[in-house]
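A quick word before the example. In earlier lectures we treated sequence and structure as two separate objects. From today on, think of them as two lines of the same record. Here is EamA domain-containing protein written that way.
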Amino acid sequence: MPALIAAQSRRRMVARAELAGSAVCFGLMAILARKLTLPGMGFTAGHLAVLRFVVGALVSLAAFGLIPGLYRPNNYRLLVTRGLSGGAVVVLYFYALAHIPAGEAGILYNVFPVIAVVMSLALFKERPTIHLWLAILAASLGVVLVLSQGHMGLGLGRGEVAALAAAIFAATSANAIRAARHTENAATIFFFFCVAGLPVVLPFALSPWPGLSQGSLGAWGLAVLMSLLALGGQLLMSEAYGTLAVSEAAVWLQLLPIVQYLMAVPMLGERATGAGLAGVLITVAGVAYGTVLGHRPRA
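And the structure line, produced from the sequence above:
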């Protein structure tokens, strides 16, 4: 029994590291998406969403060919549901990144872990501890503090509405991943995310694509890199959901907008303030608190 408990504890630590790595991947992805949708780059939110799914599907097919048994679908309805909701997330989030600063988009979008926890109460009968609720509250307050800084308004323009709509679909996806991990591996879930999500985003990519001239090769390279970062973030997140409850994952997912906010300062020239940095510290403290005290005592 002690050996089993130790192994479970190690797996939980690995899952938390996977969510931290996922936050870094998604943060960099958002920075590149914001950069690629700036005037003069030639890409739209729809273009990037389609490219993300196509690259993900091709890499998945290559992995399935190299690793026998990696492709093991069981619950097709759940896998397709995750793909459709994920497709809506991608196109809405990229649309938000094209219209508002990356830091603001990330913070608005990342209310999804809290929404996901509420959904999980009904879907999985999860019962977060009081410490976990306090950790989610503290981390969320830190995120709100970052949002409330002077250069970020609280108005609801089309970019803000798109980010919030993406958050609702992302919460649905998070619970679908958690449910699917009982029967599916992370690679299979990601493949269906790409295949089922592609028809959702394709109508938004009908405008002319940037050409492959010498001047645009760098932009295409960044777009492919963005797609690979998204692939890494999705796989790490799906793998972590195989171990952590939705409520505990919600605490760690609060790192995503913080990572994105900090990266946007040097990479996009977005401004950081004292209030924003204080929000960062509160969020990190909330994550640490939830990690140490948020789990239920083992029988």
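Notice the following. Residues 150-154, 294-299 have pLDDT under 50 and may be disordered. We will return to this example when we discuss secondary structure assignment.
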